[in-house]
Amino acid sequence: MNKIKSLSDLKKMQEDLQSKMSLRERSNHPESIIQIKVGMATSGIASGAKEVMTYFINELEKRNIEAVVTQTGDMGYCYAEPTVEITLPGHEPVVFGNVKVQKAEEIIEKYIKNGEMVDGIIPMNYETINNI
Amino acid sequence: MAKFKSHLLVCGGTGCRASHSDAIVASLNKALSDLGLQDEAKVVTTGCFGFCEKGPIVKVVPDNTFYVQVKPEDAMEIVQEHIYKGRKVERLLYQNPESKERIGDSKHMGFYKKQIRIALRNCGFIDPENVEEYISRDGYQALGKCLTELTPQQVIEMIKKSGLRGRGGGGFPTGLKWEITAKEKADQKYVICNADEGDPGAFMDRSVLEGDPHSVIEAMAINGYCTGASKGLIYVRAEYPLAIHRLEVAIKQAREYGLLGNNIMGTGFNFDIDLRFGAGAFVCGEETALIHSMEGKRGEPTLKPPFPSQSGYLGKPSNVNNVETYANIPVIINLGPEWFSSIGTEKSKGTKVFALAGKINNVGLIEVPMGTTLREVIFEIGGGIKDDREFKAVQTGGPSGGCLTARHLDIPIDYDSLIAAGSMMGSGGMIVMDEDDCMVAVAKFYLDFIVGESCGKCSPCRIGNKRLYEILDKITKGEGTMEDLEKLKNLSTVIKDSALCGLGQTSPNPVLSTLDNFWDEYVEHVIDKKCRAGKCKAMMRYIIDAEKCIGCTLCARNCPVDAISGERKLAHVIDQNKCIKCGACMEKCKFGAVSIN
User: Fold this and answer.
1) Coil, helix or strand for B79?
2) Reported pTM
3) Which of B7, B127, B175, B253 would be a feasible disulfide site paired with B160, CB 3.0-4.6 Å?
4) Per-residue pLDDT reduced to its tens digit, B474-485
5) Best interface-test mutation with B: which of A38, A45, A78, A95 has the largest number of B CBs within 10 A?
6) A4 in a structural domain
């Protein structure tokens, strides 16, 4: 890995990373670009987020669904932990609340495979500086 | 399997459920199957939209149509018009209150979104253990800009102009603090991050550290550039193991990428960060006590001045800011101070993160612009009170803050309005209470906390708070007198005026604010020996109504202390001296003969 030696290095790295990501989002191979983020702050982990994340990783592999599963911080919905955000190619990200293993199974079979939404979606009710 | 073309999202939050969103789900499903459209669209219930005022909400995706105040009888029209014919039902669309224009796409009605996430911008978006994700979302750009394009004084001017004030509770202007540290002359200065979050029920700083550690690291480096410090220290409590782990990973990655260390981005600027662990003492959130704890001394505060900016860690000038304060800095540099100061109120700029807890439906972490009202936070974003109970009070500012009541719900949340109302902003804990909470017991809870956490250095805090606690305890046991209430008031004022540090000076606030706002409840405890919330057990008496009691003996058999006596088929009696007020008799009685007096 190269050290960032100047501001232009940093800017170049940011551009590379962003184009890598948008490539993922705009790819023509939908099956390869599903993104799953599991909220793994203390509150999420205490409610079983680790188990759910492992379940997603193992089950998606078993079923030959290519997806990027990553951890992230607190999404703010502590009343509905564990929370999982799923971005299907060409779709807006969708956050699911109270995702235990059983719910994860339903999400894989219905939403990830078929784009069919399931109960327990948490509507995004805030803005970030990136979408103002 | 069917591939659905659209989804109808029906809000299943408590507010909307109370206005029959369940019936809407059923009617929508029926309408879909009546028209044979069950394979075209699917109905899904969701969590709270945070727009309860206009509920029940139905949102159609993918076209993001947002229907408000929907009734079950509207279901057929929505399905027929929208799903079948592809036309929006105009009359149910949200109407902009000013322009009276109906808005079809929820993306254009951003104003309903009461939250703006600045400090939490990356929290829940990026992988906190991967610096590249932070970089891809403008990470370290602000540091790069400062180092290459701006002088330290220019950066300080930007922070001053932004109007950012300390988010740890005090609300001291951040830019001014930086300027004072920068002006000091010393061979070594320090940048300190106060991550000793200690208010009961507060978890804002932990979430930022766990979700976006690099934002704090970047901001500390910017502060180092401004003040001339090459060393940063984060004081984080050892009870936050995950936050510590994520910080350690983040610092390691930042070093590997050359974003910490020597000659950062080829500019000759050197900066590095170390962690210091606290043992979880509340007083160590006070900046002088925090510094002493870092030096390996007892965590006790000292009199200010000198301020840490003049003489702090190891006697060197040290800039101490809270986690959330730092998390705002990169955004101010990137988007400009004018942008930042366009959010918020006249004297409180930007946003504030709150941890919503207590008897509220949507317990969680929120970030709202300064000036948002308590009502919007509790009843819109928070989704209202649990189990449809009556709102009683909201506690802000932790043990240094106070309890506000229903008549304060419309005050805007900012530093000055909260202080004027008898509470304070604090670090951002917000605990909501309902009619089942006894305000005397709440005051007692906070005093108990303070007595345990007082460092003991000054007598007003060490002894005074203990006495306050004892008086409150006496009142909750039904032994209080009206003189005790006077004593509470006087002693609180004395502690406020004479304690050494900020924590001691604010420690009687929970007592003073409850005395102010819930005087009747105190008097009830003292004169009527009654606790309306049913929390103060010593004052409760369980009694058996002889007319209703049929002598089934069930209560007597279930009483754990054998306090109930009576012959079979005759009315029973509770021996008040033996009764421990567990309530088992009332729970078991099938005839409603047991009541609380």
Assistant:
1) helix
2) 0.88
3) B175
4) 999 999 999 999
5) A78
6) no
